[in-house]
Every structure is written in C-alpha cells, then in structure tokens.
Amino acid sequence: MKKALALALVLAGSAGTAYAADWTPPKVPDPLPDSLTWNGITFYATLDYGYAYQTNGRPVGSVVSTLEFIPFTTTRNFTGQRISTIAGNGLQQSNVGVKIDTPIGNGWNIVGRIESGFDPLTGEFANGCVSFLQNAGLNYIQQNSNADSGRCGQALNGPAYGGISNPLYGTLTVGRQQTFQLDGIAQYDPLALSYAFSLLGYSGTNGGSGSTQAARWDESAKYMYEYGPFHAGAMFSSGSSGSGMFGNGYGFDVGAVYRGFSMDAVFTKEHGAVNLQTAVNDPLNSTTLAASISDNTAYSVMAKYSWSLGPALAPAPYYIKAANAEPQSDKLTLYAGYTYIDQANPSTAITFGDAAGGYPLTISGILPDNNAFTTDKILQFYWTGLKYDFAWGLSLTGAYYHVSQNSYVADGSACVLGGASKPDCAGLFDQVSFVADYALNKHLDVYAGITYGRVTDGLASTYPGTPGAKFGFAGTGTEVDTTSIMSGFRIKI
Question: Model-level pTM?
Fold first, then answer.
C-alpha cells in the first residue's frame, strides 16, 4: 500500500512538472453536449467495458458477466483458476436514467430520478438473483460468476423516486431510494464504489448495513435539510416482500461541509433483511433461493479533505465546453471511514415471501433461516485512501480496505483449524488497490488498475481447499487470496 501511494505521488510530481512546461495531453474530439437537459429533465447513461485478468477465480456467467473481483463474497468458490476475459462495470455499474430538477415557482422545485443498471455485455437488466439459480446445486468447479444483489432484474433496479425541494425547507422524496449508508460510502470511498477495485463497490454488505439486498429501500420517504455548512436527514421505509427487507427500516444522517473538508455520521436500523446463501445451498434446478433473515444495526463515520495544489489553469476546451468555465488546479484528497455493523436474529420471524425482484425464498423446516445468528454477527469496516486529480484529466488513486468479523458460531460448534472450520468463526479481510483513470474528454475516460484481496480464517472457510468446503474440495487451508487486473473505458452521457 505504501509503495503504491508513493508511486502515485512520484507520478503526480513528474506529470505536474510536464504540464507546467506546457505539455499537451492526448485528446479526443467530443461531439456531445455537456448534458442532455430539457426543462430541468436530464437524460444520462453510462457504459463501462474492458478486459480483466484474475489469478484465482472462475469463468464469467451469462448473467453476471464480470469477475468476482475479491473473495469477500457469499459464493465461496474461488477455485484456483486463472481467468482472462472481457468484463464490464470495472469503475461503475453501467446504467441508464432520467433526473428531474424543474422549478415550479416561489423557490420550489420538482425533483426525481429513475435509473436502471444493466450488464454491458448482454444488454440485460442487472440480475444477481437469477445468477444464483443458474448455479444452484453445482459444485465449485462447474460454477460461473454469481453474486447477491438488490438489482434482481427489476425494470427500475436503481433509484426510482420523486419529490419536492426548497432551499429554505429542504428536500422530501418518496419511492425506491438509496440508504444514507450507501449515499455516504459513494461519497467517501476513494474509488467511488468501483466494482473491480473497491470492497465498498463490489460488496453490497456495507451499503446495505449488513445485507446486500437492503442497500436500496422500496416504499421509503427521505428528508434532507441544509443550514449553512451543516446538513441532516431522516429516512423511513415500511418494508415489504420482494424488496429485500420485510420489516421497517429507518436511518439518520448528520454532517458538514467546510471548504475542503466534509464529514458524515450515519445510523441505520433494518428489520427482516434478506441475506442470500451461497448457490451450493440451493438444490439443482432450484427455482427458489435459500436465505437467512436478520435485523441489522449500523453506525458509520466518514470524512475526506481536499487540497488545491499549484496554479489554477483554464480548463482545456476539449474537456469542459461550458462558457466561462472556472480555472482548475490539481487536487489531492484524503479519504477515511469506519462502519460498525451488528446482525441479529429477526425480532419477527419470516416464514415465506420473496427476495428482491420477486424471486421466491426457499420454504422448509429451517428456511428461510431465522436463527442464523446465535450470537450477534459483528462486522467492522475500515478504509482509507489518497487520490490525486490533475487539472488536465488524469487521476491516480490508492486505497486500502479492511474488515474484521467476530465469532458468532451460529450452530454452536467450536471454531478449530485456525478458525477456518466454519464461516461463522472470526476472520479478516484485507484489500489494497491502485487505479489510474484518464479523461480523454468530458464524456470518455480510460482506466487501468490492480487490486489484491485476501480473506483469512472464518471469512475464508468453505472456499475450496479450506475446511467445510463441499463436494470433496475440503482441505486445511486458512486463507484465500486473489489478484485482479483490469483496464477499460467508460462513456458517460
């Protein structure tokens, strides 16, 4: 990590010197307008596409057509295969959407947003749930990429909300909305929720306060208020079957922005959240999904600070087309964050219903599992990073992520073999990433990066080669790691 950050700063200094000497960076003509806006209604879209290599993985699937970039997952089937493949969504989820911010008089605006994420390789709506069904009952060697997700084929699998806004009274919106926790990590993750390079982006655990399916709340109301440098908000959802959270949820956010510094503290409570189990727990040809249910409590504190460096220079005309654009200078940003998550057995047992997207949960004597947390499961996330943005379009980012899990021993048996005997034993996850991203113009950037992730003890258990692995792949290993490299391009309209 230290070497990666040092390299970033050396490159920053070298490139800054070249730019000061009137070096002209490569550029690509940009035929698109700055935005596609009409009467406060803005259409936008993102396409993220590239090529990836992984030292320990498995083939991409027909639905989840990207690698499982890190071993912090429920799927537990990194099988030692070296994978080289076309992949998508390296920096962000490809999407298409409409944003509304239309004045209606007396300082009031109608606001709203509808968005759907899609797979850039197939053109289909993002659908993590069906990827579990496609791999149901298959042994590790036969499986391809699959991942738990709140995006499960819905026509509107991202935000879908509307409301009103006023600079004096705040903003009130209702519909399907991101939690304050997901909003927060999107702002304070140095890699902006990159799927290929960021734990916070690839895994939905943090954004969903313990449960990936609960990162976006259906049937929710959200209120935000700003006063000078301070802001605060409250959010509530009634929950429902098919939404990823059966019971109600509520959250609060307080924060401040002052010059280059910003900070947010978030509290979240969720009742009856859905946690899909690995596909090997689903019978072959299953049409239902095995899941455990939890009540989640999460606290998070996140901050960043930015410094402007060097003289302010006029933006290159190919990069920002707006008339009279303000001069830009290089910028260095430091990020840090901490999240504490407590998952407990639900106060109200869930005996039937659907996961996100309307996929039925498996119903049996023990499923859905309402007793997966004999003692509370505690996850603690820590992250930090540095990002250097050059005024002419290049950014260099180094980031480090760490997770610790306690021993919650769901089935009551002891943890042995270094704690790797069961997935509910104590364990650790570490990830380090470095990414270079260059904007060829406002709507097109190219990127390349590398990430290394490792799980140990309980978080590594049941992977092939560790105790508890199914289908004859059990061993005595206590850790699993992988290195992933990806380069690609992103088009943003």
Answer: 0.92
